[in-house]
């Protein structure tokens, strides 16, 4: 977005350059992540069994508690980091491919997050809240997986066909919300929330039907998609697949759309002031519909990354909360396409690293959700972060405070 | 004086002031026709349907009612359609529609049951008793939504408040082995989320939709984290709360049919009656309620007459948190007993749906919540006796109904005017 760090140029006592920089958009984001990690550390420490044991005699030996807490936190975060990027322990046994596997997992997890994050971000720039990425992912996954396992086609046709199906599925689901907004003024937050749950039950129902149920299985899982519809992988041992290329392409596409195209200009105009856009002769209703169609298509692609890349079959839990994480991704990325890519990689890393942390130290992966939520809470309230670190007020960073009511 | 001759009013043609048919009436008539066709045609002839009207332990035993399924499906649907047509005439005369709408609902459901249960027996009392129970968290959640949104703060975090309430109730009740203490502590769980909502929405002007989403994530994260760390490894100490059993109210619980449904429930249900009545009276009959509504509709005007807008909002959001937290207790100390990860499973969003469906009115939300609870319970009852409708579609009902409601199918749905807009004194 356009907020830049403005250095104060007055004669009054100037804060140091570092503090001014920290008070800007990037600085606030960084400090928010730090604060969230620190609070997360407290939760990890307090819930650690060893720490609880030592608190029993805290006043006799306070240092023991503190050192136990320190160890617990450090081990958890170390496991988080090695699960995110690089595992040096595997370097000698499995070579570079094995040691870098965590990074590939991070990218695997980040792929749908980036795509769904772009969906939320694009809608956000047009003044719409797409809370419905979850449902759009499910619809995309339904279409993509069905095309993936029901057809037998050469690779060159099959994969694009399945991907197109994902886009259509997501776009239909997003389009319903856009259509209702355009035609009846129904608030997209409410409609997308409802559509999420309808999609959840829809996929649950489909997975009871013979057309979707894997032969010989009673649990809700579809047949595996044919290899010809799968996203190609890069390295045999890694799950990372070409979906990430699609995600990056989409990021570039959304960036171009928003910054360079006429349509994107109209989207942003509607987003910053719908009445002004209407006065200027734009068809606001049509914009709403278009935005939600495109946003839905992007989220549908996230569904394709799940079923054609990572999971390779449709299950009831195919969306795995990605649609909700996508909202935090879009906000952390400040609704900027490349920001979304960075945020998606960070949260994908937290997901991947969180799994490693859970298996290695027993710290439940759910702490990752806490950290994500805290990060977004803090970046949404720059004055809070500034007051914690006693930073100078630089204005700006007023993102996420442009609230509109239900009736807007 | 006499020079001014008013034109005779009776000259105005009467026909032009007939109000247009409300969407609701059109929808009811449409549904009535569909019911008549679908239930009438699809119900197999020659089958009977049996409605049980007692649970079996009442003092006054009512006999079971056995009816031929096809004929009763047709008759009930026809009565429903007649009620819809009645609503049409009522709307022409600008009379209240709700008696007709209620009659429509009752007979529509009976027609549906005659079709869905054909060849089987269904216990109506048990069905309704269970429905009321399932509606409890929805009612508390929607009351939280109303308290916040009437004051102008959007509460999308109901789900999170229910979840933290359920968690705190389970932990406190387990540690003390006292369900009452769990019930008393539960509101504090909801209060925690409410406090964050209030601070960030009112002090930092963070967009309330974002806040709701993020606070739900936070609630899921925190409760799941502590569940995995503390509750799951030590179920005995941390997660084995005692639960409330039903307490029949003397005399009232002996009334046939409605006695066992309404007055043989546990304490949380009775608390729900009190909470709904208190909120409804407080919101529409007291000075406090007038202020809250003023703040939600026109904060600037409220400020001008000396109402402290943000204080009112802050208090209401906290109050909402308390109420939703209390509703969360239902999940642990009043039903399942043990806390489970993400055990609220979307109930908070159905509560939000009830707020909207009930048009931000306590009694409306109560009605919507009861309807959604009924759909939920009917789904589980029908899945046992075998049903022509997949249970997943029955589970979709609240969401579909709300989608149609906000799309204007049942008339205009309008939130408090200042809902979601932070108040900044200029």
Total number of β-strand segments of chain A?
0
Shape of chain A from CA axes? globular
- Summed up, the helix count of chain B is 16
| Radius of gyration of chain A (Å) | 23 Å
- Structural class of the helix and strand makeup of chain B? mainly alpha
| CATH class division of the largest domain in chain B | Mainly Alpha
Q: From the alpha-carbon coordinates, what is the Rg of chain B to the nearest angstrom?
A: 24 Å
The end-to-end distance of chain A, rounded to whole angstroms, is 23 Å
The coarse overall form of chain B would be globular
Give the end-to-end Cα distance of chain B, rounded to a whole number of Å: 51 Å
How are the strands of the biggest sheet of chain B laid out side by side? 2-1-3
**Into how many domains do the coordinates of chain B divide?**
2
CATH fold group of the largest domain in chain B: ABC transporter involved in vitamin B12 uptake, BtuC
| SSE order of chain B, one letter for each helix or strand | HEEHHEHHHHHEHEHHHHHHH
Low-confidence stretches of chain B: none
